[in-house]
Write a structure and sequence with these properties.
Distance between the termini of chain A: 40 Å
Oligomer: heterodimer
Shape of chain A: globular
Number of strands of chain B: 11
Strand content of chain B: over 45%
Shape of chain B: globular
Order of helices and strands of chain A: EEEEEEEEEEE
């Protein structure tokens, strides 16, 4: 069974940093692109970033470029999202997803609140 | 970026009723279209990919169709467990973009 389990969410002040992790199991992690998708409270879904299976290429939405960094450790089957210079508009539940052009597996989500 | 527009924003349906949700892309996405269902407090789940292919485990009352810029999701017989929010997503090119969602309630 495919499982994605996020951790690292919490309350953080504007301008500070936070790092999310996603532990994957039930599939060969190194074979798949992975992505982060977020959902602000009572809002829709918003793709944040993706990374190729090797980690050699990354893709970001414009609003997080230069602030967020997606990375992975294939030996640990773990995906990461380093979030720097956080803003109030980054407040959301962040989902770890398997990216096949469609998101065919989702974690339970990690809540990130940016507030002073 | 490719813009995805869903309609309606909300609807209610009776048990057994046929439900159709529309999704329009701002340019041709060559059937690179997925549908997701999200129930309250839960993560989204993939229903349809490639515009019309049913994800494993999804009931056959769900179907997808369309091409070019116009796509639709049909639920052939509304069930209680189908309540939730439905999103479309284009998977042609980054940045992946989602529709605004359609909230489906049981009448």
């Amino acid at each position: 069974e495919v499982q994605l389990v996020e951790s690292g969410g919490g309350l953080v002040q504007p301008g500070r940093s936070l790092k999310l992790s996603c532990a994957a199991s039930g599939f060969t992690f190194s074979n798949y692109y992975m992505a982060w998708v977020r959902q602000a409270p009572t809002k829709g879904l918003e793709w944040v970033a993706s990374i190729t299976n090797s980690g050699g290429s990354t893709y970001y939405r414009d609003s997080v470029k230069g602030r967020f960094t997606i990375s992975r450790d294939n030996a640990k089957s773990t995906l990461y999202l380093q979030m720097d210079s956080l803003r109030s508009e980054d407040t959301a539940t962040y989902y770890c997803t398997r990216d096949r052009g469609v998101m065919d597996a989702w974690g339970q989500g990690a809540s990130v609140t940016v507030s002073s | 970026d490719i813009q995805m527009t869903q309609s309606p924003a909300s609807l209610s349906a009776s048990l057994g009723e046929t439900v159709t949700i529309q999704c329009r892309a701002s340019e041709d996405i060559y059937s690179g279209l997925a549908w997701y269902q999200q129930k309250p407090g839960k993560s989204p789940q993939l229903l349809i990919y490639g515009a019309s292919s049913l994800q494993d485990g999804v009931p056959s009352r769900f179907s997808g169709s369309g091409s070019g810029t116009q796509y639709s999701l049909k639920i052939s017989s509304m069930q209680t467990e189908d309540e939730g929010v439905y999103f479309c997503q284009q998977g042609l090119k980054y940045p992946w973009t989602f529709g605004g969602g359609t909230k489906l309630e049981l009448k």
